[in-house]
Specification:
Blueprint lengths: L5 H16 L5 H5 L8 H31 L3 H15 L3 H11 L1 H18 L6 H29 L4 H29 L2 H22 L23 H13 L2 H16 L6 H20 L6 H23 L6 H32 L6 H29 L2 H28 L9
Amino acid sequence: MTQVSKSTGEKVTAAASAVKDAEDIPSWPVRRGLVPEPGPKRSLAAGSFVNMIGNGLFMTGSALFFTRSVGLSVAQVGAGMGAASLVGLAAGIPIGRLADLRGPKGTYIVTLVVQGVAMAALTLVRSFWLFVAVICVTQLASSASAAARGPLIRGFGGTNPTKFRAYLRAVNNLAGSCGALVAGVVVQLDTRNAYLALVLGNALTFLACAAILSRLPHLDPAQAPLMTNRWIALKDKPYIAMTVLDSIMAMHGQVLLFALPLWIVGHSDTPHWLVGASAVINTLMVVALQVRASRNVDSNAAAARTVGRSAVAFLVGMALIAATGGTPKAVATGLIIAGVVVHTIGELWHSAGSFELSFGLAPAHSQGQYSGLFGMGHGLMNAMAPSILGLFCITWGARGWLTMGAIFIATGLAVPYVARWAERTRTNEFQTQS
């Protein structure tokens, strides 16, 4: 195990102690669903919150750290991050299988420690190739971490892990926003010491999360049936098809992050503050409504129908945004706000359905491996999404927004058929309960 400095170790221990003290939270937040009941769920939520504060810090300030503090060019940063994203895809399935064989808790904690150490190593980077090497390690550990985290949520999520995962998504959005606010202070200071503090702060949150999750009870791996194929996920054609469809649907996340800001600034007569306002609207809706959107999504059939509904919302939202070209400022502003709201409703529905399908169609003994496959599909599509959305939504203009919406509709309509195909191929030994 990699050792950390005494001061860092004390901070991690303090973070874990603070979470332990949180066990004394009054009962009313638990009854209202604001805080999970004491036990593994609360520890997972606390760890996720701490970790996502760091992610919000780094995601907001990383580009400026690499360009203004390390001295890399924008092109070098883009090339390095793109290469690291593709390299990171390779870790999901094998680490997921390791989590299935050895248990997800220890695997997840190791990946968190590796991420923390690799993140701290970024403060020593002074050249492009060292940057690429270190950022590739961080992305490999990140993909591995996501694969190991899936079966942990499945194992401790109770009778409705999809609802718990929805709660974690709301918590993560809140924590990420807090981190982004702190990063705004760092950007305003714009000094090397401030940027170094930002990176080391993110590294510390990985270690603090690992310390918090070390309190979780051991989760025994599920016993695989005899003669089960070693790489079962890679031979499961229905699940692979579902992964492809869900990855296409997951491009919706880049619509508000990538395509909409470019559209607002360059293709509509709307104020530029709408870029930030759209992000705030999206975040607040996810924090407030994600758990509610996951109610009654408790089977593969219900999840598939929910994904289909999300596709309709995406089409309507993108049509509203497309209609802003050439319209008066006040009307265009209202249309974009309405489009963001409708699009976010689709995002809530898709997340709920996607969570349930990723768990419900995977066998209990291979949740990590299947989680790695699902994450690999999403990661690959996230790498491709800016180019695809740039072509459709920016180069093609309004008709491109509508075409992209039609792609979402076609994909969403196919999901129930593939879900039924997948369920027909599940045997009693292969099936997992949602």
